[in-house]
Design goal:
single chain, about 475 residues, mainly alpha, 15 helices, Multidrug export protein MepA
Amino acid sequence: MKLENNLGTDPIRPLVLRIAIPSMLAQFVSVLYSIVDRIYISNIPVIGETALAGVGVCGPVVTLIGAFASLIGVGGAPLMSIRMGAGKTEEARKILSNSFLMLCVCSVALMAVVFPLRQPMLMAFGASGATYGYANTYFTVYLCGTVFNLLALGLNQFIICQGYARKGMISVMLGAALNIILDPVFIFGFDMGVAGAAVATVLSQLASCLYVLRFLFSKSVPVAVTFGGYDGRLMLRILAVGMTPFLIIGVDNIMIISMNAILQSYGGAELGDRLVTCATIAQSFMLVVTMPLGGISAGTGTILAYNYGARRRDRILKAQAFIAGLCAVYVTLLFLAARLGGALFVRLFTTEPALAAEALDAIHICTLALIPLGLQYAIVDGFTGMGKVQLALPLSAFRKAVYFIALFALPAAFGARATFYAEPISDILGPVVSIAVYALAIRRILNFPPSPPAGEGKAPLPS
């Protein structure tokens, strides 16, 4: 099979674009999984608004489960790219086989652990007596597809890291397109309501999973899935590298869960469910921002990883500068979209004037500091791509800590609606610290000969 991209020799700018754009589009389309569900659910007659609040409670929990795919996929893919860049194909193959086993075991374990705990989880995460039934119905069906979800998302990283960004995009778009088609069929055609939305999502994830497995088990891919060579220390190394993206996704969703719980608490019986509905709409817009942004910054991490393994300082610096520029352009466009088209986005979920106005205000507040957020993603995912967890993880943790402090302090001082300001506060302070750390650390990180070693094994491989 002909390589789509040569990570070590192709010109940097076209190479970054050929990987960033499909990765961004794949993540953008994957947002449709949740947003399309929410749009259709919000338009169910009579129960739409309440059902949307219930599914909104499920959203972060569902994504939190999916974060385990990043723990293993984004943990193993950079290590695999580094080994491929150093010409160590057998080591790369071993990383993939260990990652595949970990994804299989993790998905089964998650179902076994989460299923009996779903009721207390959903109630603790912001469900009310009125919304719990819808949340439980959606979440119970969704859990049945955990294996498909984790394999599709996690293994997709190993397609992209071998240079097949378009194949990775197709796997995601296949599932998203199928979800768009099946949602109205199951929700309205079969009159299954919220359960129908979950069934459509699970079937869509199954389609993506089968596509990814077929590709990675083929003999034509440079590094295919094999069995054997399992190594506990290697698994721990994969988990260590994947811990940063895992915590980023996981804590992001804990932040959303906490916001929903705080909105219920400070909003009270009359305002709580309404504010959770507004938060669900605002969070849906933020998914349009952060998931494609992560597609740019994390998807192109394979370029940094490969060239880090090949010891190509010049290519790494060029790629990082261009990736940061792409991230800045994307978030600037989304900042403008929030101001100019936010009302149109809100109308997809509700036409009630008061609710729509409140949801639009929430979007405007949450997107106040999008532009510095783009640089945060580029820096943290860049460090992750090069395996520098000791830098990426604290930078991510600092931004989350700022968010949590603001999340609990603001509503206590100014009321429930002030909760939304926690997002822009963290999106300013986090990037400021990340930029400072990058400026101080990048020279030391790239302090190796600019050309590859003369022969394999003559110099230690960067870690």
